[in-house]
Amino acid sequence: MQIIEQTTTFRLPGRSAVALGKFDGVHLGHQALIRKITEQKHRGLCATVFTFDTSASAFFGGEEEELSTKAEKRRIFQRMGADVLIEFPLNAETAATEPEEFVRRYLAGQMQAAYLCAGPDLSFGKQGAGNHALLARYAGELGYRVEVIDKVMVDGEEVSSTRVRDAVRRGDMEAVHRMLGAPYSVSGNVKHGMQLGRTLGMPTANLLPEADKLLPPRGVYYARVVLGDRSYKGISNVGCKPTVSDSPVMGVETYLYDFDGDLYGKDISVELLAFRRPEMKFDGVDGLRAQLREDIVAGADFPS
Prior knowledge:
single chain; about 300 residues; alpha/beta; 10 helices
């Protein structure tokens, strides 16, 4: 997959099928858009995902925490078959682009769009004035087709990034799974921690998520760890380890079942499957050790 970033002067070499969206979380609705553009490959079109390098909500002073990091989104787009990902710069200049100019210059001109799709709440250009009606107005003149993709329904309600975000903040990881079509995950490189788990006879893998990655409430979660093409049952603590540390830095510390090896420096993805209990502060390491053993026994019986 080709990634175009940090520039507004790109040009695709041929006609394209473009999915427009924020793609935070890449939930089932977003995935429907990506399937639409990959279906256009049989027409010789380049399956292109267009999004912004910074979320509009964060740029305009709203929501700053993201459901998915840039790296996580890239992996999903590539796995789903996108040919090109455009991470368009969002800044004062581009945010002030008139919607008609955006369509003519970027969509029809530089992307050579033959097919465009987006959700019903699409907005773009200056003051978000661009919408499906504007795209349709220029479709004949500029030679592309527009399709509005209906919202996907889960549990009787429309799936949206806002709904997914609310469920993450509640720690309802099962609801998040239903809306994403996959478990909510935290990815990164395994770092050296305090090695307390190893001292207690329960070695763990430590991740320090990116600062803007949305995490669920502090606590212990049943988990699964993906390492390369293999996965392992796990149990994770999301939080700051208050019994042994005063640091406010949030981390994800995971015990892996049936794993024997060194994970330091390796990239893993921790899938948080279900909430078990809140994070607790114990009087000492003996109480912590006893509770960790209970958690590990419970996790062994959890289906994953």
